[in-house]
Amino acid sequence: MRKLLVVAGLLLGAALVTGTPAKADVGCGCVKLGANPVCTATVEQCMSKVGGLCLAPCDYQPPPKKMAMRHKKKKM
Hints:
The protein has helices at residues 2-17, 43-50; strands at residues 25-31, 38-40, 53-60. It is an alpha+beta fold. Strand 1 and strand 2 (38-40) form a beta hairpin. It is flat, with a radius of gyration of 24 Å. The termini are far apart.
């Protein structure tokens, strides 16, 4: 019985250790008077681009990349 508990504990510990980490980056909840709060990547971006103050951490997700459009060539 004791061996079963030890093996179960080792398997549970291995499952927890090998799990993938969270991929959310910590950003800055930027607040400016008269505007909606925005999540920015760093405090410097909040102060320079938005012109606000960083009040709380947030989960920053960068905007998705735009795909380049392929232009079709006309056939002759």
